[in-house]
Amino acid sequence: MRALLRGRPRRLLPQETAAPVRYLPVTVQGAVVGYLWASLDGLAAGYVNREPAGVAGEVAAGLWKMRLCDAHREGVPSLEALRRCALAPQDRLSGIIGGDAPERKLPGLRALRGLARQ
After folding, report:
1. If pLDDT is split at 50, 70 and 90, which confidence band does 4 have?
2. What pTM does this model have?
3. Burial 45-62 (b: 16+ CB within 10 A, else e)
């Protein structure tokens, strides 16, 4: 939206990939509500809400996606953007990752979406 307001088209951050992904859990009040991920090729990133978290997982998505998009606009590869997000301060609605959260790897988004259904 900000890009449209400035009148300059911007390249959007791809939120789909066939590449393996690294991911981090997003927690709100100690409960995992979703997963922030980045493709290992450094080209795509996104957020997958955890289905059992319900609305809390959906609400948390906004700020995390905005942080990833901001990093993408700065030219930051998606894996570095993921690591930057891990250092972000806690937000009342979007939660926190925490700098000590270990990155985990999965073969792709399908596997991460499967994890998010559990």
Report:
1. very low
2. 0.88
3. bbbbbbeebeebbebbbe
